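Ticket opened by: R.M.
Priority: normal
Category: complex prediction / small molecule

The reporter submitted a protein together with zinc ion and asked that the result be attached to this ticket for the collaborator who will pick it up next week. Submitted input follows.
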Amino acid sequence: MPEGDTIFRAARALQKALSGKVVTAFETGLAKLASLNDDTPLVGRTVEKIEARGKWCLMFFSGDLILVTHMLMSGTWHIYKIGEKWWQPKSRMRVAITCGDYQAVAFNVPIAEFHTTRSLERNSQIPKLGPDVLADDFSIEAGVWALRDRAASHPDDEIAVVLLNQRVLAGLGNVYKSEVAFAANVNPFRQMSTITEREMIMMVEASHKYMKANVLDGSGDGIVTYTGNRRTTHSMDSSDRLWVYGRSGKECRRCGATILMRKQGEQARSTYWCPSCQPWHEMANDPSNNLR
Ligand SMILES: [Zn+2]
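Result attached by the on-call engineer:
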């Protein structure tokens, strides 16, 4: 049975193979999907993005169509190059989506449904996303509220894991997670219960600022634009523009200490930080705790 991180990895692999590509063929063994596909064909649509939410895999296509699959039990997505032999028998195929050279095949998924943004919003089983840091109506208050809410319900969660949790704040990737914690001088391994209101505000502001800058910058690959450095060509090393991400063993651009890296959370994502700019605060040493 796939665990959350397996689904997360599957979604990432699907995203890498298919996103931005046009669907050239669609096949399904499910009558409901087949009839919906007759009315609103999948072929010709562009794969916009693929994301994991809990045990669900969401595949977004242009024209407001979302294929939602539940990966409970033996459900799984495979990616094949065209002509490659499938690892499971065709009888288990539920959905097969071809985009040029690649084919994504869902075997044995117990649930596969098409949704629109609206029907997805109304569905109470599929986890919702948190406020989107890139949305036009995003407010710092809403972002801080989401962090505060998470701190109340999951006080032991580590802050950098929470920053990546799309159900808390949507839009931050693994690069920004480290950059945002650095911007607020917050040690990425601190538990939510130790994060102050002021730090939450700084992190939400940094998230918003970095993501907007990245979109304006046009690189769109999760690379932050660090202020104070010239933006020149696309060929320049992206890590030149980051404070901590990808810089373990190098000097902190602010204080000169050595940047560290450690795998963090269930998904073992790389987290970078400066031990001097982002010191570890023990809860017990904080006198304000006695006031709670
Ligand atoms: Zn530093």
